[in-house]
Fold this protein.
Amino acid sequence: MTAAPVLAPAPAELVERLALAARAAQRDLARMDSAAKSRALHSAATALRGSEAAILAANARDMAAGTASGLSAAMLDRLLLDSGRLSAIAAAIDAVADLPDPVGAVIGRESRPNGLDLARVRIPIGLIGIIYESRPNVTADAAALCLRSGNAVLLRGGSEAVHSNRAIHAAMVAGLQAAGAPADAVQLVPDQDRAVVGAMLAAAGLIDMIVPRGGKSLVARVQADARVPVLAHLDGICHTYVHNMADPAKAAAIALNAKLRRTGVCGSMETLLLDAQFPAAQAVVTGLLDAGCELRGDARACALDSRIIPAVANDWDTEYLDAVLSVAVVDGLEAALDHIARHSSHHTDAIVSEDAAVCERFLAEVDSAIVMANASTQFADGGEFGLGAEIGIATGRLHARGPVALEGLTTYKWVVRGQGQVRP
């Protein structure tokens, strides 16, 4: 007699089972002190380094499949792991382990006239669901940040990085368990069925917050369908405005780095705004073109170099994630501010100028999660901000903004201490 096939659980049942196990593990995690969580993360980093061969072999499978399926160069760059990148991922876990533990920190404290002592104390959010595409480093970064902040995490990576994610997750869990941390605090969804994403978005009461990391279509779906609070990371349409008082050498170096250091990261500059009175505009665009960047410009930008392609309307609202850049010539600070207000995704915008007053006005008036003066937008990164790593860069206005790391993964509760007071 043929045995009946073993059916995979329905997506909602799978998510419920994983979430309940994670919530139980999060209660165990809450009993671990700061030193114990730190030791567990250092152990995970050590295990990651020890599993380099297995992880890189898994990544090679994903890269081969991605190449065969026609993934873009930017997506392949996000997917790629090598010894250096894996070493950096492990170093980020160690860095997170050594950061101050936010859990238990007192945000504010006061005594009321009736003698009540009131404090606001940081606590974990609970169970965080991370839905992400392509980047296998998110598996490690999210696990480390969630565990350090006392949260359990349910990871759902993209199919293009499935083997890499599984290898990284297996190594980290082995390291965490070796140090006494609950394995179920860091779970990777074992099913790539897209219906599982829907089940996670509907899991109100089981998952406390969803963080999407990926393209515009993924984030739009999460925001439209979620019945769980969402911490959104939108696309990075990042601008650099070169003011007429910019230092020419500084402007050229910043523009090159902001666009071409890594074109596939969300902090990559996508639009360059050149002041009409800036005397070295041609040198800046020539440097970009000579470095292999395609430029798409307005009429005045095209006049700077015959190699610049005329821009079309949607270029100003496109996140290229490639060696392609929109360029516009603007008549002063007001015009630059107006352009950014119309087209920025509120991620990261920068100014290059030696006029301190102009810089301060730009920093005050541009409504983006990160604003910069005289620096490359590629610094928009949790590690560069001293946060160890990041879950993502939140572009909304509620809960957390900019690189979301340990504090962004906590909430707070009121702790009230009395001596028998009753309310009249």
Notes: The chain has a mean pLDDT of 93. The first helix runs from residue 11 to 30.
